[in-house]
Amino acid sequence: MARKKAASCDWAPARKKGKPTQRKGPAAPPRTRLMRHSADHSWTGVKTERYKLDDGTWADVIRRTLVGDRGEGVKFHLRYFEIAPGGHTTLERHRHEHVVVGVRGRGKCKVRRNSYEIEVMDTLYIPPDAPHQLKNPYQEPFGFFCVVDAKRDRPRPV
Amino acid sequence: MARKKAASCDWAPARKKGKPTQRKGPAAPPRTRLMRHSADHSWTGVKTERYKLDDGTWADVIRRTLVGDRGEGVKFHLRYFEIAPGGHTTLERHRHEHVVVGVRGRGKCKVRRNSYEIEVMDTLYIPPDAPHQLKNPYQEPFGFFCVVDAKRDRPRPV
After folding, report:
1. DSSP character for B17?
2. CB A97 to CB B29 under 8 A?
3. Choosing from A146, A148, A152, A155, which is the catalytic residue?
4. β partners of residue A148
């Protein structure tokens, strides 16, 4: 179990002031960066990560961070998640808000007691503290963007 | 010329503390909101606005703000822009960064001296102070998301 990456998809530890998220060497000013999309919903220069540490609360989810982990100054992170058929994210809540945009296939998002069907380009705003969970009960991968504030609280499983 | 909306697509005046962007009545806590997408790239509950005031620097651009103008607490705004064939945005620069994601058709983005072809789901990060302009030299509409910080400086035409 050597792979200790981010503890959660939705949480990043507070950065020290003046210290960029870039891990290697001194902070270089960010440069224009085109991330070219492929049919399999990968992007050039963007790695595939697991959703978070295995803790039994989720299944079959991967993450690709397009913007936010390479020294940019933006106050938000843009991430792509993909849930394989039958998979789901953690049922959790947190103070920070979510914006989810369907990108591939379709899936469901439970927010409090409601369930929302998400198809490509459907956009869901999830308010603070609302317990929520994304699921893929279908036969194709369900991919979506999730935009969050760069500084955010750690999710709590519900 | 009664339509005096935002002065620029990329700029919003600083909000007074505690005063939400929502214009009518007292601030209501934001609620879960599904914006259902239609084939014409409109979304339920999202209005179509002009890009900015006519100043001769742009042509044939509309804007739809999905997240950021309805009292949300997020530190970013998510907007959809669409450039008709032959249209273009203002050639401008500003301190805030842009994240552009192709959503419909294809187009071009000039950043400094380079030109980037943007197709659906291609994602472009534009760093601070880089003069940039989006164009649609093709026959179909060119639609893209643009994510920006909620608090940002006013663009300056180049």
Report:
1. T
2. no
3. A146
4. A77
